[in-house]
Amino acid sequence: MKLFNSNIIDLLIRKGLPFVTYSLPGSKETILLVQKSPNLHKTEFDNIENIQGFVIAEFISAKTNIIEYINPDFIFTSEEDLNELNDFLVGLSDVNPPDEKLNESSFLSKVQYLNKTDYIIDKLNEEELDKIVISRVSPMELLPDFKIDKFIESTINKYPKAFVYLLNSGKTGIWAGATPEILFKKTNDYYETNAIAGTRLLSDYKKKKLWGEKEIEEQQLVSYYIEKLLSEIGIKDYKSTGPETITAGNLVHLKTSFKIKASAINNITGQLIKGLHPTPAVCGLPKARAYHMIENAEVHRRELYTGFLGPWNFKDSSQLFVNLRCAKFVNNMALFYVGGGLTAQSDAKAEWQETVNKTKTLLSVIEKL
Question: Which residues of the chain form beta strands (DSSP E)?
């Protein structure tokens, strides 16, 4: 799939305007949204039904109750002419990129990660926690000839079943990702959410198509949480299917889908989305206790990682995706955000390898440019 004019992405970044280009799973179309004003719009979860645009929610939005969004002034598909946008951008002054200092102490070495993970696994045996998701940041220096538009074009072509995006704003900086996980999808007839957990290398799974007890338990915890949430907010008219094995790049996961009749939601969309975020697949259970431990245990801010994003009430589409398999681009560096679910049965070395495998979703694209 051919992306937009190669100059337009660089021009948008230089001008500092909020924009996103994305491709929905299974779509042959790439969308570009651009907002003229420099600041993202804000609203609260309960007001989400009243907004239109591209939603961006950080991991910490679970605490702040604030989500942000791009309200686009320009909307293009990759087949359309961009002369109008180009003329507008040329008339603007360049904006100096934010001088973001990298905190190298937040890049854990393998030894540091193993020590931290071993400690947390021991705590899981002592405390009333079923699961916690611990993440890390893996940095990579980019070559001088790296072109971000070529990178995102290659990512879209390599992962047609994922939600692939490139996002920039003064608030967030530059992010890109190829995530397999729907947080919330809305159509005329039904709403959908997924429980995705458990991770194995695709090559290993092909040899012996069996899942281990740890991965099965991890996925069941997420499914049970969603069932409990639906029950607590009074939603009974839904259907669950799975778990089934799905492929996401070089990895496989276990997935259970929940489809809810639209008539059962009754204007509680924001309440449901807030209840889903962050999912136990990216936080843990019990959720409040796991969230608190993550704040104390992780040495980096997750920012957009394990938040959610996607088009909302826009072009007949409302789809929000958990921001996984993602990276932030700072100066000449790509920062890969990866994590894994820990239970009392976890093995620290296996968890490290899982995070390494997850970096390969985007790293494998960069290495071939």
Answer: 19-23, 31-34, 41-44, 53-57, 66-70, 74-77, 131-141, 163-169, 173-179, 182-186, 190-201, 238-248, 251-261, 284-285, 308-312, 318-322, 326-330, 333-342
Element (H or E) spanning 117, and its range? helix 110-126
pLDDT reported for residue 2: 62
Neighbours of 105 (CB within 10 A): 9
As beta bridge partners, residue 163 has 179
Q: What is the Cα gyration radius of the chain?
A: 20
Residues in the chain predicted with pLDDT less than 70, given as ranges, are 1-2, 4-6
45: three-class secondary structure by DSSP: helix
The answer to whether the beta carbons of residues 69 and 40 sit under 8 Å apart is yes
* CA–CA dist 302, 281 (Å, integer): 15
CA distance 36 to 167: 15
DSSP 8-state assignment for residue 145: T
Please state the pTM of the whole predicted model.
0.95
Sign of CA dihedral 105, 108, 110, 112: positive
CA angle 351, 353, 356 (to 5 degrees): 115
Which helix (H) or strand (E) segment holds residue 239: the answer is strand 238-248
What interhelical angle do 269-276 and 213-232 show, nearest 10?
150
Tell me the HSE value of 60 on the side-chain side, using a 13 A CA sphere.
6
Q: 142-157: b or e for each residue (b if 16 or more CB lie within 10 Å)?
A: beeeeebbbbbbbbbe
Q: Give the separation between CA 307 and CA 118, rounded to whole angstroms.
A: 26
**Rounded Cα–Cα distance for residues 85 and 32 (Å):** 11
pLDDT score, position 314: 85
pLDDT digits (tens, 9 = 90+) for 101-117: 888 888 999 999 999 99
The DSSP secondary structure of 25-36, one letter per residue, reads TT-S--EEEE-S
Residue keyed to tokens 């854990």 = 108
Amino acid at 333: M
Identity of residue 201: L
Strand order of the sheet with strand 238-248?
Answer: 41-44, 66-70, 53-57, 308-312, 318-322, 182-186, 190-201, 251-261, 238-248
- Are 95 and 14 in contact by the 8 Å Cβ rule? The answer is yes
Contact indicator for 300, 137 with CB cutoff of 8 Å? yes
* Total length of the chain: 369
Phi/psi at 309 (5° precision): -160, 160
